[in-house]
Amino acid sequence: MAAAGNLEAIGASMNAGNAAAAAPTTGVAPAAADEVSALTAAQFSAHAQMYQAMAAQAAAIHEQFVNTLRTNAAAYASAEAANAASAQ
pTM of this prediction? Predict the structure, then answer.
């Protein structure tokens, strides 16, 4: 159960970092009024949007993993308790 809690804290930290980076990275303003600056800013914004989409998928997978780990830890503890009770 402790491992699941640690992983949950890591996931929360990653989610907070991704959320903090979302606005400044997806809304990059062009450095100047020329086409190259506009295209470069658009490239950075597009890349950041793709990253945010992948980060959201990774967060969902991480959450599923933590939930599975918690469920299996509880099942293991229950089985251990049942085995200990039957051994007495």
Answer: 0.80
